[in-house]
Amino acid sequence: MTTPFIVGSNNESFNKALPASLDENRLPKHIAIIMDGNGRWAKIKKLPRAMGHSAGVDALKSTLRLCSDWGIKVLTVYAFSTENWSRPKEEVNFLMKLFESVLKKEIEYLNIEDVRINFLGDLDELPARLQDLINQAINLTRNNTGINFNVCTNYGGRRELVLAAKKLANRVAEGKLDPSLIDENLFEKELLTSNYVDPDLLIRTSGEKRLSNFLLWQLAYAEIHVTDTLWPDFNEESLRNALLDYQSRRRRFGGLDNAVKDQL
Ligand code: IPE
Ligand code: IPE
Ligand code: MG
User: What's the whole-number average pLDDT of the chain?
Assistant: First the structure.
């Protein structure tokens, strides 16, 4: 029997079955989440913002567990953006400490549960202790074959694109790459997500209808589910609703529906 990485309210160590209302053959392979609304959750409860972030960690743990149980291959979450440094110093410091303590506490369990964790973003700018923990976690879980769990930390979509362009430009300058060979496939290989398929579904909590510099390239054809639920309240029902919404969409990728084609 393995130790579950869910702590707190839900402490089962068995897999949760996919709800009958969902079609297991039409699940997204890759879910991306903008976990937003921690501050507002705390405000409603008359608590400090920090408590909202701590509560958000529990929502993340149970969402990861559910995605893993329901057969989602990749989960990518937005934990800290390149713009979030502009928040008050106390809040930024709290978040960095929170990332450290959660990693320290959970990494062993994530490994036991076969999760392969990765961190996407400019990691060099993070506190040294956090960088060490991140490297340990990546190395410990690198050969795991369960869900790929990507945590975007000091991540910015524009920065990622600029870095990709720079890497290609350097190869051209060194005479190692003919610029006429640069196409979407080659460009994509320079992105932090080059090992994963693009997200099929983007979930944003707290009702905001914007991307906030998240995965600008990769979300080109993602279905977008916005829920008013604040991130710390995001639960099994919220995830099921997001997946039901996803399964109700017709993905056309710029083409035509089969039903429309039949009428032609
Ligand atoms: C998301 O919650 C967490 C981070 C950006 C780190 P917020 O802190 O943005 O919560 P709101 O938007 O103020 O409610
Ligand atoms: C996006 O949320 C970043 C994360 C969830 C980490 P923000 O709260 O920073 O986004 P804005 O400021 O509402 O666009
Ligand atoms: Mg926010």
Answer: 95
